[in-house]
């Protein structure tokens, strides 16, 4: 793998125009071409996740194909955040489109059904936003480059304890989703470990619009902090209703809250939300700032963590394709397991299980914007 890397580096790369036929370079080989299937949450209550992800992928795709070292074709399908639709989409991509590999689906709930099927078919799969416990362990073809809740939530809770001297917490979580349940398990374990008193544990379901019963109970118990495991839609509505009831304590959320949509939906009520992130757009890093300005130029808005993780994921795939030297699924899988890149999320490599270790940054929403929680 090192030899082929050096050979590719010697080719210069980067300067070629993506016009006409792309010739193989000095190595004598053809440019590796591959179809990659994408299963993304593009319609319904979490569509902003899928929009961010596919925007990040399409920006990376333009850059990667323009370099001319590999040629990727993305085939994008909508899962609508539903297990059955995600599975149908993945099956179509794997069996009819015969893709080399998959990106997605968006939700851990969806990956829980798609991952085992992709693994059975020997189709390498990367989750760019699947953060629940156990995702890479679904199979040896299943990887992720997203910040696991197991790293995100304890970092946020630590910061909240340090800042607010929090001692008593209430927890609220969605009990019908793999990610929100897993986030809850992590919150409960972290709260216990840090000696916080858990005053109550409340639940809700996807699409719920009225949280009066849960929030009334929480308000009566007077917590220092509310730990909420939710996707952005439910999470934002919970915060909005909490503030309207006069609950003004900080919230700690997981990755699901880390979307500009929370501010869009909840407005001022989103202030006081604490989340840990693998990435933020204000980072003083030339690679990050280059990405942010290209993204803003193309889409007219700032990228979020979901766009950033997807962008790096396609670079991880491009590197694996180059190193594999072929679009064969097994060769690609083995090259993927060994990939190392320096992306906008920093230096990246998978651990032996296809998972990732990252240092999160804790953010807080203040005056309607995510800021680094100093
Ligand atoms: C998961 C998540 C969601 C927030 C993805 C958008 O982290 O389902 O794992």
Word description of this protein:
By secondary structure, the chain is of the alpha/beta class. The protein has two domains: 2-17 and 25-147 and 283-349, Rossmann fold; 149-277, Rossmann fold. Helices cover 44% and strands 20% of the residues. The chain contains twelve helices and 14 strands. The chain has helices at residues 2-10, 47-67, 83-96, 108-120, 149-164, 178-193, 212-221, 232-244, 260-266, 286-299, 305-324, 329-338, and strands at residues 32-40, 70-78, 101-103, 125-127, 142-144, 168-174, 197-204, 225-229, 251-253, 273-277, 340-343, 346-349, 361-366, 369-372. The strands form three sheets. The protein has a seven-stranded mixed β-sheet, with helices on both faces. Strands 2-1-3-4-5 form a five-stranded parallel β-sheet, sandwiched between helices. Strands 11-12 form a two-stranded antiparallel ribbon. Strand 11 (340-343) and strand 12 (346-349) form a beta hairpin. (3S)-3-methyl-2-oxopentanoic acid binds at residues 49, 106-108, 129-132, 179, 231, 255-256.
């Amino acid at each position: 793998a090192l030899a082929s890397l050096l050979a590719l580096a010697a080719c210069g790369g980067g300067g070629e125009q993506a016009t006409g036929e792309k010739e193989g370079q000095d190595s004598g080989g053809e440019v590796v071409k591959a179809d990659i299937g994408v299963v993304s949450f593009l319609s319904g209550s979490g569509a902003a996740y899928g929009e961010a992800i596919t925007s990040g992928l399409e920006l990376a795709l333009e850059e990667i194909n323009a370099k001319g070292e590999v040629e990727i074709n993305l085939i994008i399908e909508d899962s609508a955040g539903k297990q059955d639709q995600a599975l149908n989409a993945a099956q179509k991509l794997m069996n009819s489109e015969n893709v080399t590999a998959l990106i997605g689906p968006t939700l851990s709930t969806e990956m829980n059904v798609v991952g085992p099927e992709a693994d059975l078919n020997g189709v390498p799969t990367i989750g760019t936003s699947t953060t629940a416990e156990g995702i890479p362990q679904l199979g040896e073809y299943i990887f992720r480059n997203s910040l696991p809740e197991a790293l995100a939530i304890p970092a946020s809770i630590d910061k909240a304890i340090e800042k607010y001297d929090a001692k008593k917490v209430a927890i609220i979580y969605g009990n019908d989703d793999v990610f929100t349940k897993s986030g809850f398990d992590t919150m409960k374990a972290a709260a216990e470990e840090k000696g916080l008193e858990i005053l109550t544990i409340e639940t809700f379901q996807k699409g719920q619009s009225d949280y009066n019963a849960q929030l009334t109970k929480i308000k009566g118990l007077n917590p220092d902090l509310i730990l909420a495991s939710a996707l952005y839609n439910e999470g934002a509505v919970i915060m909005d209703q909490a503030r309207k009831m006069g609950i003004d304590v900080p919230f700690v959320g997981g990755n699901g809250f880390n979307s500009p949509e929370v501010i869009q939906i909840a407005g001022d009520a989103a202030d006081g939300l604490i989340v840990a992130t693998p990435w933020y757009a204000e980072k003083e890093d030339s690679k990050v700032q280059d990405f942010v300005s290209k993204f803003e130029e193309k889409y007219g808005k700032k990228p979020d963590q979901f766009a950033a993780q997807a962008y790096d994921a396609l670079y991880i795939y491009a590197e694996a394709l180059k190193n594999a030297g072929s679009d064969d699924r097994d060769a690609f899988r083995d090259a993927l397991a060994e990939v190392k890149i320096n992306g906008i999320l920093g230096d990246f490599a998978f651990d032996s299980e296809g998972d990732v270790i990252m240092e999160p940054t804790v953010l807080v929403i203040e005056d309607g914007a995510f800021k680094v929680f100093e």
